[in-house]
Amino acid sequence: MATAVQWARVFPAVRRPPTKPMPRLGVWYPVVSRGASRVVLEVHGRRLDLPADLVEIRDRRPDRFTVVYRTATDPNPAVGTTKDLGRVYAVCPVSGTRVRLYGQPEEIECPVCQHTGEVAWWETG
Fold this sequence. Notes:
The protein is mainly β. 0% of the residues lie in helices and 41% in strands.
C-alpha cells in the first residue's frame, strides 16, 4: 500500500462512479495524491483518479465503523443468501469488511481483523 497523504471515501449521496476498481460505500481508502480538482485513491492495490468533489477527505484514518444505508433501489448481489447484510450495515475502518448490525449497537468488533470500535450512527457512508 502506498503511503497515505490522507484518507477518503466516496460520498454516499453521490452515485458511485463506473470505474474499475469500484470504490465501495463506507470504505476509507488512502489518498495517494491530491490536486485542486482531482484526487488519486488506492483501491484494491490500484490507483483510481476521481473528481475531488465526489469524496470526503480526512487527515487521519477514522477508527469508527461507518454505517451504510442501502436504498431499496441499490443493487444487492447477496439478496436471498446468508451473506445478505440487509439494508443497514457497518463497514470496518481498518479492513473495509462489511459487518451485519443487530439492533443499534454502540460498539462492534470486526470479524476479520478484530478491530473494536464505536459505530458512528450519526456519520453515514
